[in-house]
Amino acid sequence: MNKKYVSILKKGMCVAMSIALLGSTFLLKDETKTYAAKEQFVKTTDENYSNPNDKNFLLYVEDIFNIKDKGVVFTGRVTQGKVKVGDSIQITNYENGKPVLYTMKVQSIEMVNKTLEQAETGDNIGIYVGWPFGEDGYRGPLKRGAVIQGTSAPIVASKTIVGVFTPAKSGFTGSFGNGFQVQAKVGYCDFTCKFLDVNGSGIAAGQSPRYGVKIGDFENGGCIVYPGMEISIRKDGKTYGTFVVVSTEEYVKEAEETTKTVKKANTITVKAKKKTVKFKKLKKKKITVSKAIVVKKAIGKVTYKKVKKGSSSKLSINEKTGKITVKKKTKKGTYKIVVKVTAAGNSQYLAKTKKVTVKIKVK
After folding, report:
1. Which of 14, 83, 217, 265 is least enclosed, having the fewest CB within 10 Å?
2. Whether 362 contacts 326, CB under 8 Å
3. 96, 117: one domain
4. Domain that holds residue 112
5. Distance of alpha carbon 134 from its chain centroid, rounded?
């Protein structure tokens, strides 16, 4: 081979090797953050899938219903931990752009028409909490997308989340970078948020997973997520990819200040009994009837109030005792009185009102 050619070839190889080594140096420098994020991701994944039943109870509310004679029921799949009847639970509800906390007690647990004493990771259950806001059929501001946790070590909502983003293979065109607004499906709800740091140049469809990506600026002030959780990222009906949580930042401390302890539902029961009075006695004087309304398990002072609509003008009620008075000279027949019976409750139990209709027969 020509000596001159060999010399040029050697120089070229040296230059190429130098460029390669220099490039590797810059690559390692630029990718330090990524490598650290990968290590954290592996560690997080291992910890997340080990002994899920030993962790604090967590359930994302899929739906919420009002069940007659039972109360409010939250349905969903237990993400981690265990819960049993009588446990205190913390419910994070998103209201007016921020998380609000409520503390309640589990009254009962059901799973496909079966009553349970305890549920654990993977169970699809319904959690009954009675009527926490003191009125039958009223669940207050509670809604789908709330998060239920045990009180031993609850997760605090975070303003920003760091993790691994895997772009969809197709479905969107072009690329996006910092500040790109999307919708993140956390649990059963979509929350508007932004990519705060994509850790590099713009992200395009079909790219490899991007480590150390940060999302935040949630419209609801923050979200409750856990390491290893998968979040679907969408925009305008298109899927942009999947985000796996590695760590969280900037906890929403304001939520602690708005914590509310909800009182238990009043256990009052009310039953009406039909009563009879004699017409002959009513000719001379009015007659007072007792025990026409039977009240049991009432918590707090009990009061009675006549409802004008549907009630006879011939009947009246003592608001303190519940005794019903039939007016003097009332003719023969059957008369009705509609009564609201209220148990005032106390520091631990809410007030509750029940309506009954009492029939008085004059013969």
Report:
1. 14
2. yes
3. yes
4. 53-154
5. 19
Structural domain includes residue 311 = yes
- pLDDT, one tens digit per residue, over 196-249 is 999 999 999 999 999 999 999 998 888 899 888 999 999 999 999 999 999 988
Domain final position from 113, 136, 154:
154
Residue 180 main-chain phi, psi, to 5 deg: -70, 125
356 lies in some domain:
yes
Are 165 and 209 within one domain? yes
Low-confidence ranges of the chain (pLDDT < 50): 1-30
Distance CA 122, CA 49 (A): 13
- Domain membership of residue 210 (yes or no) is yes
- Per the CB < 8 A criterion, the answer to whether 162 and 214 are in contact is yes
Instruction: Look at residue 153 in the predicted model and tell me its pLDDT.
Output: 85
pLDDT at 141: 85
Q: Sign of the C-alpha dihedral, residues 92, 132, 153, 118? A: negative
Residues across the chain:
363
CA dist 129 and 320 (Å) reads: 31
Number of domains in the chain: 3
